[in-house]
Model the fold of this input.
Amino acid sequence: MSNMTGITQGTPQRIPFGAGVFFENVTYSESAPPTQEEMIAGIMSATQEGGKITITPEFFEPDLDGKYVSVEELIQKVGETAVMETSMVELKPEAVAKALIGKITESTDKNYDVITSSELRAGHFYKGFGFYGELIGGRPFICVFKNALCTNGFGSETKNKENGKFAKTFECKSDLEYGVTKLPYALFIYKEDKWTKVPPEEIVEPAA
Done:
């Protein structure tokens, strides 16, 4: 058997590790990552079973007579989708209302928030929605959607000796200011040559 593998000296520094954090209300930019203060202030919920990011371009290729295979020069990008998924465990009225496309009112005894159906409004969209994660070596990577909409509704399943969790699917949406030909998303991956990990021998225990 060959001793060749895909593992190199840089491999440990390029592997995503851990569940990460989902946040909202950060400033969307395609050149400046959100600040740590913004992300911490915008944390949405504790999560369970991690998360998933899927960004998929959509292609068109004409089906021409005499063409039996896919041809590079004929392929055009005609759209894209960008989706983040996770399961959140905190039951918050605003999150439920956004998932249901609902509105929040108050019960007559003022002890309950009441969520009922409504028409889609601007407030149902998440602004500056994103994810913060890290690679094994601690190098951060961040994904941000300018606008996101929770598209899978609301569902709750309760089990004996288990906490409830709420699956969430967030789809990136454009707006008329940004344009109608591409989605407003940005992925930030911290540069390897700008990241310095402190060697163990440089960690000094404080004096007793």
Residues 23 and 185 are 14 Å apart (CA to CA). The two ends are 54 Å apart (CA to CA). The beta strands are 16-23, 47-60, 76-88, 102-106, 113-117, 126-135, 140-150, 166-172, 185-189. Residues 17-25+46-59+86-190 form one domain.
